[in-house]
Specification:
It is built from 8 helices and 5 strands. The chain is α/β, with parallel strands linked by helices.
Amino acid sequence: MKRGVLLSILGALTIGLLHAQEARETAFPRATYPDYVVFLPQSEIDSVYYSHNTSIIPVVFRVNKYNLVPNRQLDSIVQVLRRMQVDPAVRIACVWIGGSASPEGPKAWNYKLGEYRSQALARYLAEEAGFPRDQMEVVNLWEDWYSFEVALEHGAQIPHKDEVMEILRTEPDNERRKQKIMALDKGYTWHRIIRDVFPPFRNARMAIVCYEQPRDLPAEPQLLPLCDGIPAPGPYSRRR
């Protein structure tokens, strides 16, 4: 079930970008790179929708942990980033990285986990791929209530699902959300959520944001702004 939930979330997060990019005329062959590499016109580089809510790859951590363990996924990301840095047709605007925690646990610790996880991935890419830290946009997403809601909307099954979704829609305070969900059936639904739905949200997620550019044009990174100043999304804002 955990794998199915993760796939549902990733599908929801990527579908908007795929439709938008298919409709956009561009000289750059998108299939050259994985879909977490986002090619945008300069006017859209700072778009919260494109850089925070589409084509984002998560690096999942164990519960309460923030140390990265080398694996195939990380190796692949490093290889892609290295290749892009020497590709004359690619102009990287920034690598966007956001760290999050699943909503269970103390809020103060969850806030720290979001920060630790985003910084862990940023350090890893700087060390292993040689990517400059000043071209990274690193944000702390804190407790990932938004992805929890997306998972429920896209098929995750839990007891009292309708009641839980109503709580998420009507209660903006995260701590009260937890208390209301735990009160549904003496904590059984809450423990099922922790076991079956929350694991994919313990992550650092990333997207490589690039300028669209035809292959036959020289790169001019010194003339283009980095995508700094992209606001971090709120813990339960609707980014659609």
